[in-house]
Amino acid sequence: MNKIAEKVLDSTTEFSTPVTANSPELQQLFDFIALGATDRILPYDVIELIRQSRLGALQIPIAEGGGGSSVRELFEVVIRLGDADPNVAHIVRNHFSVTERILRSGRSERNRRWLKAVVDGAIIGLASTELEVKRAGGGQVVNTKLIPDDGGYRLNGKKYYSTGSLYADLIFVRLLSPDDTVVTGLLPTKRDGIELVDDWDGFGQRLTGTGTTTFTNVRVEADEVILDTDTDKDNLPYNIVPQLFLTAINAGIIRSVLRDATALVQTRPRTFYHAASEQAVDDPLLQQTVGQIASNAFAAEAIVLAAADALDRLPAAQAQGEEAETAAALTASLSAAKAKLIVDDLVLRSANLLFEVGGASTTKKSSNFDRHWRNARTLASHNPAHFKARAIGDYEINGTPLPKRGFF
Asked: 52-55 contacts: CB < 8 A, separation 24 or more?
């Protein structure tokens, strides 16, 4: 256990069951997480605190034991968690995306069992990507195939970029059925034959456990397999959520940059010899720079929450019929894509501005201020912006449909 986690465990009061978006205990948890955000230690203890808080049940209705949050409230929490530690926010991204999918899939006995596990604190990870496919992000599967075995299946194969699975209790796996149909499964991570490897070597988001998952003769029960019955449906909401999630984390990073920039100016003991004032706090150029970062943080949060509002309008549209649902899903997908283009730019500019505030001394490794740019750049690299911008432009000019499955 690292020292930061010891402090958290010693000091945190009992969590409500579970926390809601406005719980005072939730902000207390985030404050403690922020204390360890510069640590270079895998945050197992912080994830254990998230289990205890039942944060993962935020989306589940109150009647079913969850926090009952709207989509907007969820993304308000994501921004706050991204501010505290973007690694931790990224770790739980797939958890919330999978939970959203289960919530929208009805209440079978299996789904109720899984939702109950989340209410009890279970964290869900993901194992989807296979490097053998030629087009990233499309959900293709070529090697991880189920083989019939005594009323269930056996599974062999390998997945990459399994973000969050290192810390998870359950893992959501994209698979091939025996008849070569793409399906998914939700499996306990402790099951025999599942190996989670921390081999992610990116320059940012270093603690997310975005590594390799290997399946060796893993037993899979028949009721753990989910059929993808809506494979061709455009812009499914549960696929828009993970896209906007990354953008929300970057919005949170700008808030963290603002906090560091403000503290740097307030504690700076000297300034440049040709500065406009004797004290850094009175320097109009430093004030302007911090003001720009603050404005970037405000704009990024507003943009993300506007996109979240578009997702919140989907249930009402679904009740009006397929045409209204399709139009609302298109709006939500466009909103999430446009948000990414702007917020990614704002966060990278803000991370650069931090060094304008602090000068050369802020480049010391011990300060670790470069983590903001590294983390933001890594998050922004998911689903490259130029592909999104081109697709948006093609839609606006020619009415060309957006890419399917909400991976856009």
From this structure: 52/15, 52/121, 53/15, 53/18, 53/19, 53/25, 53/26, 53/29, 54/15, 54/17, 54/18, 54/19, 54/119, 54/120, 54/121, 55/18, 55/19, 55/26, 55/29, 55/92
